[in-house]
Amino acid sequence: MNCNVATVWMHDYLDGELPQQDVRELKAHLLECPSCRMKFEQLDRTESLLSSAMHARGSIEPEQSARLNERIMAALPKRRRQSPWISWVRNHPAATVAALFLFVMLSSFLSMWHQGGELIVRGQDLQSVVIQGDKVIVPAGTKVHGDLTIENGIAEVQGDVDGNVTVIDGSLQLASTAHIAGSSRTIDRALDWFWYKVTETVTDIAK
């Protein structure tokens, strides 16, 4: 446990507002941390002094009571107000981990977006595919079995593709003789590319 969190919990404990589970965690920390244990003992004595002073207040002159209160309040450790964000993180650990994982994935994928311009061609059946520079051609009269994915290039489909055609950061040209059994799409925005990569990653993991 962080010592700053322990200090906040000390106040809640002495006020009787700390949940039982946190009480056990606080006590375990105090056993391990001499500095926090000393701070707790000082705070406990200060709280006891304040309580005694409040009970005896009726027999003290108003000016003396005011000075006593000032001295006691000055002796109290500064209580740090816990951020609502920290409280939310403590109460929703699973959601926090998921959000952090999504943020890391998004940052990683977006950092890769537009890095390098190398032509990448992926598919189960590339024997009939012709590559000319940055152009990937499926000639008329030929058939590609399975999905076809082209990154950083131009896809020119003249023949048949028995699957999906996906073009990332490029363009797709379909001849009148072209036939695509699945879907065809062009991804040219970072967010679309990100969701494509997420879907692809999940699919690979599920295989």
Automatic annotation (TrEMBL):
Family: Belongs to the zinc-associated anti-sigma factor (ZAS) superfamily. Anti-sigma-W factor family.
Keyword Glycosyltransferase appears in the UniProt entry: no
Spans through the membrane: 94-113
Entries under InterPro entries matching the protein: Anti_sigma_zinc_sf, Znf_put
Annotated source species: Paenibacillus curdlanolyticus YK9
Residue span, Putative zinc-finger domain: 3-37
Keywords recorded for this protein, A-Z: Membrane, Transmembrane, Transmembrane helix
Presence of keyword Transmembrane: yes
Domain of life: Bacteria
Protein name as it appears in the record: Anti-sigma-W factor RsiW
